[in-house]
User: What shape does this take?
Amino acid sequence: MDLAAYLDHTNLKADARREISSRLCEEAARYKMAAVCILPSRVKQAAQLLAGSGVKVCTVAGFPLGAEESDTKLCTIERALENGAAEVDMVINIGAVKDGDYQPVEREIRRAVALEKQTPFLLKVIVETALLTGEELVALTKLVARCGADYIKTSTGFAARGVSLQDISIITAARPAGLRIKASGGIKDLDFALRLIEAGADRIGSSSAAFLMEEYIKRGGR
Assistant: This one.
């Protein structure tokens, strides 16, 4: 298995300095990971560093709470694409889900998906599984797929917990063909990462991606 192709090397901390972002890009390029996931203010820097490497630049919108108005999230996405992002992880309005009002969530995702017609990119929708019931996660999995997003992403890494195997099991059972899964939040152990992939994850977002690769190579992987 090509583990690197599953990995989004991530740093979304508020205090991430320029040199940290540079190291993230260097490590991702060295191992040929799928993407680097960084804050919007670092997109232009990452795009320059990763030019020609094959590693995509990913950033976030509505992060980490999802509580901004849709216009703000859409503006963030548009600006990120202008600066060189090829993938965007957008946090949904979780409060609306808790209200039982899925309509604004659906409108927001559809608006983001519509931007792909202007500038092709991958949209990953963050649903923050730690805050959801099983029923809500099933409903959101189907909604994200119906809206045409590329991925459903489990977590921001800022909630009480990150991804669990149960999250991936629920999503995998509910998702229609075509919807991919990004598992994220608290993935620091290679065995856990491999179990998530076996359970159905198509991407792994981790701030420990370089460590995961080092461990994988030590075990004979490539």
User: Anything to note?
Assistant: The mean pLDDT is 97. The longest helix spans residues 18-31.
